[in-house]
Amino acid sequence: MSYLVRTIDQELDDLLPIAPAIALDGPKGVGKTETASRRADSTWFMDDPNQRAIIGADFALTPLPPGTIVIDEWQKLPQAWDSVRRQVDAGAPPGRFILTGSATPVDAAGTHSGAGRILSLRMRPMGLHERGAVSPTVSLARLLAGEGDQVGGHSAFTLRDYADAITGSGFPAIVAAHPRLRRGLLNAYVQRIIDRDIHERGRDVRRPDTLARWLRAYAAAASTTTTYSRILAAATAGDGDRPAAATTMAYRDALTQLWLLDPLPGWMPVGSPVRRTQVAPKHQLADPALAARLLNLSASSLLSPAGAHMAGPLFESLVTLGVRVMAQAAEAEVSYLRTAHGDHEVDIIVQGFDGQILGIEVKLAAAVSDADVRHLKWLRAQLPDKVVDLMVVTTGTDAYRRPDGVAVVPLALLGA
After folding, report:
1. Taking a C-beta distance cutoff of 8 angstroms, is the pair 354, 144 a contact?
2. Where exactly are the structural domains of the chain?
3. What is this structure's pTM?
């Protein structure tokens, strides 16, 4: 499979000439090593005992050759982080180090955070716009900058195509696989986390079946703010020996450290008339395909009566994934808005570094009615000086602006 250019490639191109050290964080299989190594003069693999021993034997990293160095899976030798930080303090040139990691190290208590020295970038699975199947015509960055007056374009993507995208995965080695193989790889990905990766996090999974059921219950809660106690109850219904809440919270924390859980935070506006918002996270897995696989949902079943109840939430997961990738490149933060009593809700809030706001609703349909944009228009009325644009992301075929100024954009046409 040829390399698919990622949105984070542009971020690295922009930052490497000015940053001495960059850390790429994200789940296993997301493509960190391949993306980083394309910019490196040499790559050192910390899962290789010989290379790990060489790095570990010299805190000053004197064996490393000149040029850009990738230290892959640095968490397997936490000392490497401090060594790089010291090199930055000593005047390492821009573009000297890229560290890739798929987990927070277990024994990182004595490791310096790297704040002010090592720039951290989150690398997520590919959004739809990165998978080579679509040709975006609408730029999220331009909308956020208030430069998106011209909204247009046509897409031939169908509802079935979106179902395929949900179940097809954003992991580079999986997305191009045959559907039968893809399902097996996704199953193996989850099973490895349960059987091995969490154990490596220092957690003893005494009941793997319970953890697997908890993950399925979490997947069923995608794009909702269902409480963790309800997720646990759903996972252990009828189980006479229910694990303690503290045990499942420990699993949750370990899964988050492995970047498998990627919850969307609630928006907390500062100095605005929007008061009393909910802050409980909206549940998301790193890749909606993992949620679909945990729930035994195929593209066909998502479009059938049996699986239709998850089509909307998982489409929102797919949109959220893509928006987060795009927003990071635009130096923006992503959250959601729900007022305390649920009177108003906006699926996605993108807030730029200057405080400007782009409000986004997600709709698993082609047509958009006045009722679909009422919360977006309410947000604009509350924050007229901050809201620079509003958008509904759909499964339709054409991008356009409504008379009220709200952009309607099929996901297949939305890009960075």
Report:
1. no
2. 7-122, 128-164+264-287+298-415, 177-257
3. 0.94
